[in-house]
Design goal:
The chain is of the alpha/beta class and 321 residues long. 51% of the residues lie in helices and 17% in strands. The chain has a single domain, classed as 3-Layer(aba) Sandwich (Rossmann fold), CATH 3.40.50. It has an 8-stranded mixed β-sheet, with helices on both faces. Helix 7 crosses helix 10 and helix 8 packs parallel to helix 11. The N and C termini lie close together (10 Å).
């Protein structure tokens, strides 16, 4: 698939990646940023939860509050990364709208910034999403600074509240920069420029949370992109209801392995558990398909996540392999 065709598969400019904790959403977000950087493009990978998950994935020092290159692609593409810190974002905001550069830094020393984001938690999300909007819409010399921005967002249990910034800030301000900024963010999030991709495993709780999140975001008018099934395992056995001891005994003997009664019984129990698991996974696939969104399956990474594994996932997201 050529780079233009590949990017048509991911038409949004802001890609919000969410998923239940433990589904690998940070890994998927990083792989997507790599995939979208192909063809000599520049992407920005953003995190907002303070976990420094991006730095751990790419084996770099903790990310500061600035955009830094963390990866390149063989064809000249570039991935930059940014860890958005709410305190630094508020200082930037105060300086931008109120010219409080030095005074803002003094407020930090007094603890006023921490106080402000604690008593008004909605303000924190406005600052975080506001920075993401700025990067997504930024132009340099008349050209977009980034072809795409990928946001490693909060998990599915919090994603609706995090993205629904206008409701939260309505309690904070009726007029002024906070109101206008939150309205600008809300307009971007509800436009075709934004797509929320939901990462899940073929397990009951992640699938249920994915369905709930898609329903919530749809009700909020926020566009859903793809459902990404992470850690998909290839079938080891033909899809049948049962594996007989005779079949296993013949197979073990043909492979030159012990075929005593104990070995056959243990293998039969494992085979039956695998088939039962496959039946559950197929029913969960059906549930996900009924959500009506495009689905992509990413393979289980047997050796963990490293640079080569990220490239493998990026290949799959780009429609290769």
């Amino acid at each position: 698939m050529g780079s233009e065709e590949q990017h048509e598969q991911w038409p949004a400019r802001l890609h919000v990646v969410t998923g239940k904790g433990g589904t690998g959403k940070t890994t998927v977000a990083a792989a997507l940023a790599l995939a979208l950087a192909r063809g000599g493009r520049r992407t920005l990978l953003v995190e907002v939860e303070g976990r420094q998950g991006i730095a751990q994935l790419f084996g770099t020092d903790p990310l500061p509050y600035e955009e830094r290159r963390i990866a390149t692609t063989p064809d000249g593409g570039e991935v930059r990364a940014l860890a958005v810190d709410p305190e630094e974002a508020l200082l930037e905001y105060l300086d931008m709208f109120y010219r409080l550069g030095a005074a803002g830094r003094a407020l930090r020393k007094l603890g006023a910034i921490d106080f402000a984001t604690t008593i008004a938690p909605g303000l924190r999300d406005v600052l975080l999403t506001g920075k993401v909007k700025e990067a997504t819409t930024r132009s340099v010399n008349g050209r977009r600074a980034y072809h795409a921005v990928v946001l490693d967002a909060p998990p599915t249990g919090r994603i609706g509240r995090f993205l629904n910034v206008t409701t939260e800030t309505a309690r904070l301000a009726k007029v002024g920069p906070i109101k206008s900024q939150s309205e600008g963010v809300a307009a971007l999030l509800r436009s075709p420029m934004t797509a929320v991709h939901v990462v899940t495993l073929l397990e009951e709780m992640p699938v249920q949370e994915s369905a709930d999140a898609i329903g919530e975001l749809t009700a909020l008018g926020i566009g859903i992109g793809k459902v990404i099934v992470n850690g998909a395992r290839p079938p080891l056995l033909a899809s049948r209801g049962r594996v007989t001891k005779q079949e296993l005994k013949r197979g073990l003997a043909a492979a030159g392995l012990p075929a005593d009664a104990g070995s056959v019984a243990a293998l039969q129990a494992e085979a039956q558990a695998h088939l039962t698991r496959r039946e559950l996974e197929e029913s969960l696939r059906t549930e996900l398909a009924e959500l009506g969104r495009p689905m992509i399956e990413l393979p289980q990474l047997a050796d963990g996540v490293d640079a080569a594994a990220l490239r493998t996932l990026a290949d799959r997201l780009a429609g290769r392999g």
